[in-house]
């Protein structure tokens, strides 16, 4: 299949790109890695009459370790997130998740901004950004705004993005990444998913970020799930069950089992589709929540 005819622009500056998007309104779409948009155009599932290619905007591809957060430019490739040493050190949850995203060839082109804007409910990065409490900065001609990840994903392949807006940066706060200087806090992370073959979109997945204080008490337990709803969702029951609890080996296993079972039955109501039934997905979610919590806490527990 070939795409419907379209006009192509490759601006050199963000301002130019925003002006083109403003001028062409809902007819125009930004083009990032093209790994989702181009197949959709080839199948005529998307028929934009104007493409504004963001690939010359090299200043949108960066990982910057700042005072309050790690900032990731919207055009940062998946492969950079997988291999960059700042990401490995400061955002271990992101680094450990990237090998689960598609295949190496796709990761070398796909971008974080494209993944968040595309908002596939089975995509890994939206769930990881939710778990890490990230904030997404979007810009349009004449203005910018910041949208928390929890408000950015509004439904199936739907986001809070308006026509003419570009995802320019993602801020991941220190409090969740473990960069803050507060003495004695320890952080653990884990990601896991189940898919038919490696690189396929997941049938279900879970990302965990947990924090334990000096006294061994859990101060934060965030688990975000993918592929169990029309958007990434937080397993809210996990935080309710674990925050404030002393993290000691014996009781922890039972606490985690209870939290996972409760989250899978209360926080999600997955749909059935050709890949998996609702019941199967819910049971996968319970297993994955338990598994990521066990792994995330493993290095932090006391005897
Ligand atoms: P594009 O395809 O260029 O754009 C996607 C959409 O986002 C378009 O609507 C575009 O207009 C919009 N957009 C892009 N950038 C911006 C921006 N900065 N601001 C605003 N709007 C923007 N993904 C996974 O998460 N997990 C997988 O397992 C997975 N498997 C895949 C397997 C295959 C075979 C393929 C082809 C893709 C797979 N993907 C998977 C998708 C891949 O990760 C894509 O790269 C990603 O979803 C989109 O990123 P992109 O940069 O290619 O965006």
Structure in words:
The protein has 303 residues and is an alpha+beta fold. It has 3 domains: 7-53, Uridine Diphospho-n-acetylenolpyruvylglucosamine Reductase, domain 2, CATH 3.30.43.10; 63-173, Uridine Diphospho-n-acetylenolpyruvylglucosamine Reductase, domain 3 (2-Layer Sandwich), CATH 3.30.465; 186-298, 2-Layer Sandwich (Enolase-like, domain 1). Helix content is 36%, strand content 24%. The protein is built from 13 helices and 14 strands. It has helices at residues 14-24, 37-42, 78-83, 85-90, 92-97, 104-107, 112-118, 124-131, 149-152, 174-177, 236-242, 249-266, 278-298; strands at residues 7-9, 28-31, 50-53, 63-65, 69-73, 135-140, 143-148, 153-155, 158-159, 166-173, 186-194, 204-212, 218-226, 233-234. Strands 4-5-10-6-7 form a 5-stranded antiparallel beta sheet. A 4-stranded antiparallel beta sheet has the order 11-12-13-14, with helices on both faces. Strand 4 and strand 5 (69-73) form a beta hairpin. Helix 11 (236-242) runs antiparallel to helix 12 and helix 12 runs antiparallel to helix 13. The N and C termini lie far apart (60 Å). The model has no long low-confidence stretch (mean pLDDT 94). Residues 29-37, 39, 54, 74, 101-102, 106, 109-111, 113-115, 117-118, 120, 123-125, 161, 166-167, 201 line the site of flavin-adenine dinucleotide (FAD). Flavin-adenine dinucleotide is lined by residues 29-37, 39, 54, 74, 101-102, 106, 109-111, 113-115, 117-118, 120, 123-125, 161, 166-167, 201.
